[in-house]
C-alpha cells in the first residue's frame, strides 16, 4: 500500500479510505458529477461574476459544480489566475462558502499541474494569506483548506525555496493559532493531516521540527481534535506516505531527523498514540524495498528505532496492568491502535510486551464481548435496548473488527516467537476467554432470544469472529507443543485445554474450517495415547445438576428449560462426539459417574442430531473393552442397557431417531454376554413398544414407526445369541399372529428369505421349524377368523407349538 499511497492524487481522500473513516468524504461535494457542458458553463459564470463584481447564487453553484468534478477536471493556469483574482478581492462581498470552494479548486490545480508558474503560485500564496488574515472570513473549513493548499504548494519540486518557505510559515501559523477551529469538525482532520504531510514532504528542512510538533502535539490541546482509532490510522498511513517519499527521494537527513525527534526521544507534548502509529507507519514504509548503500543503512536504523518505540509503548501498557486488570477508557483507544497498527505494519520483532498487549487488545477491544454481556445483563428489563443495539452495530462496522483476521495473524506471529513462560500466560488468557464466552453468551442468549433477536444476532456475529480467532490460535498452539520433543505432560495438558475450549465455543461453529479439523485431529490423537488426558477431558463436562437446574442469578429472571439452552446443548454435543474417539481409555467408574447421566438426559433432547449423538456414545461404550476392568465394565454395560431401552422407547418416535435406536440395540446384542438379562429385557421392550402401535400402523409404509420396530425385531433373529433366540421367536410370533393377512404374508416372506440365506448351522434348524409352525398358526388363524367373523386368541396354541 506504500506504493499506492505515493500515487494518490489527493492525499486526504486516500487517508479517509485507508482509515475506514465513516465521515462523509467532503462536505463541499455534490452527489452527482456535472456534464462537460455544465463545467464549461460554470467557468463562464465565474468569469462573468468577477467581471461584473456580482457574486450571487449562480456564482456559488458554479463553484460547487466544479468542486464536485474535481477528480476529472483539469484546472489550467488561466483558470487558476481567475481563482486567485477572486481571492485577492478585498472590497467585494463574497458568499462565505465561496472562499473554501476557490481554495479547493486551487488545490486541484496544484496537484494536477506538471510545472506550475512560480509567479502564479506566489500570487496564490499571497492571496491565501490575505484571506486568512481577514478574521471575518475564518471558518473551520476555510482554515483546513488553507492548510491543505499551503502544504500542497510547499511540496511542489519545481518551486523556489523562498516560495516553499512562505507556504510552510503560513501553514505553521494557521495550525498554531487556529487549531481550535480545526478540531471542531471530525471531517476536517484528514484535510489538515494531508496538509501537514505535504509540508513534511517538502525539500526544505526549515520548520521541520515545528511541523512535527504540530502533528504530534495537536491532539493534546484542549480544543484540538480528539484522538481515535480512525485518526491513528490516518497518522500511520500519513507517515507511511511521507517516509516512502523520503526513501524514494533519498532524503536521508530527514529520515534521521524524524527518528531523533519522534522515535528516539520521549516528549511530553507528543501524544503517545500518534507517536506509536507513526512508528508503525515507518515500519510499513520500510517494507517497500527502497535500499541502496547508505540509504539502506539509514532505513535499517530507522526501522530499529520504530520497533523500539513500539515496544516502549507496549511496556508502558503492561506496566499499567492491562494483562490482569480491565482496561480503562484511557487505555482502551491505545490498545485499539496497538492492535490495528501491528496488523498493518508488517512483521515486527517479537517481545513479551507486544504479545501481552496484542492478547489484551484482542480479548477486550477487538472482541469486547465481556463488556457487552455485562452491560446487557445489568440493563435487561431496566433500560431501553436501543442505545446498546447501536453500540454493537457500530462495532461491527468499524475498521478494528473488520481487520480481526489480520490482527489475529499478527498475534499468532508474536506468539510463535515468544518464550515458554509468556506462551503459557497467553494460552491461559485465551482459554479463560473461551470459558467466559460460554458462560456469558449462554445467559444473554436465554435472555434475548425471542425478544431481541436482531440484537442477539449482531452479538453473535462478534462471537463467531472470536471463534475463528480461537481456532487459528489453537492450531498455532498445537504446532508448538504437540511435537515429539515436548514432554508428555505438556502435550496432554495442552490437548485437554484445547478440547475444553473448543467445547465452549462450539455454538459458534457454523462452517467447516480446515484449521479446526487439523487441530481436532492433533489433540484427539494425543488424548487417545493415555488414560489421564481422556479422564481429565471427560471430567470437565458440566454436571447433570448444573445442566438441568443451574443456580446462576440469570435463571431467576426466566423459566429455565434445559432443552432450549442452545449454547449449552452445543457444548454437550461436542462432548458426545469427542468422547467416543477415546472411549477405550475411559474407566467404567468414570463413565458411570460423569458421562452416563448426561448421555441419557440428551437421548431425550428434541434435536435429533443431539439425540443421535447420544445413541452413538452408548454404542461406542458397549463395543469398547478395557482389559484391566473387564468384569466391572460388563456389569455397567448390562446395567445401562435397562435404562437405555426405557429412556429411548418412551420418547419414540417423537424424539428418538430410529437409526440411533437400531444401532444401539444391534450393538448391545452383539457385545453383552450370551443370555444376558439385559438382552431379554431389550427384546421384551421392543415387542411391547411394537404392540402399542395399531395394526393399521403395522401394515403401512416401512418408514412408519411401528413397522420400523417390527423390522428391527426381524433383524434380531439373526443377531441374538442362541440362549435368547427362543424367547425372541416366541415373542415375535405373538406379535405377527395379530397382524392383518397382507402384512403377515410380507413378514413371513422376509423371514423365509432371511433363513434361506443364513449359513448358521446351529440356529437354522430351529428357525425352520419355528417358521413352519408360525406359518401354520397364521393360516389356521385366518381360517378361523373367516369362518367365525371374529378374532381368536391363539396365544395358548402358539405357546404349545413353540
Structural write-up:
The chain is mainly alpha-helical and 802 residues long. It is built from 39 helices and no strands. α6 (96-112) runs parallel beside α8 and α12 (229-249) packs across α14 (272-286). The chain is elongated, with a radius of gyration of 39 Å.
Coarse morphology: elongated
Oligomer: single chain
Annotation, overall tally of beta strands: 0
Main β-sheet description: none
Mean pLDDT: 88
Structural class: mainly alpha
Number of helical stretches of at least 4 residues: 39
Return Rg in Å: 39 Å
Through-space gap between termini: 87 Å
The proportion of strand residues reads under 5%
Percent range for helical residues?
Answer: over 70%
| Poorly predicted sequence stretches spanning 5 or more consecutive residues | 1-7, 785-802
What's the topology here?
Elements lengths: L1 H5 L4 H9 L16 H17 L4 H11 L9 H12 L7 H17 L5 H16 L6 H15 L6 H22 L6 H12 L7 H10 L11 H21 L2 H12 L8 H15 L7 H26 L11 H14 L7 H15 L2 H11 L6 H12 L1 H4 L1 H13 L3 H29 L4 H29 L6 H18 L8 H14 L3 H8 L5 H5 L17 H13 L9 H16 L4 H15 L7 H21 L7 H14 L5 H15 L3 H4 L6 H12 L8 H12 L4 H17 L6 H25 L6 H7 L1
Helix pairs in contact: 2-10, 2-12, 3-4, 3-5, 4-6, 5-6, 5-7, 6-8, 7-8, 7-9, 8-9, 8-10, 9-10, 10-11, 10-12, 12-14, 12-16, 13-15, 14-15, 14-16, 15-17, 16-17, 16-21, 17-21, 17-22, 18-22, 19-23, 21-23, 22-23, 22-24, 23-24, 23-25, 24-25, 24-26, 24-28, 28-30, 29-30, 29-31, 30-32, 31-33, ...
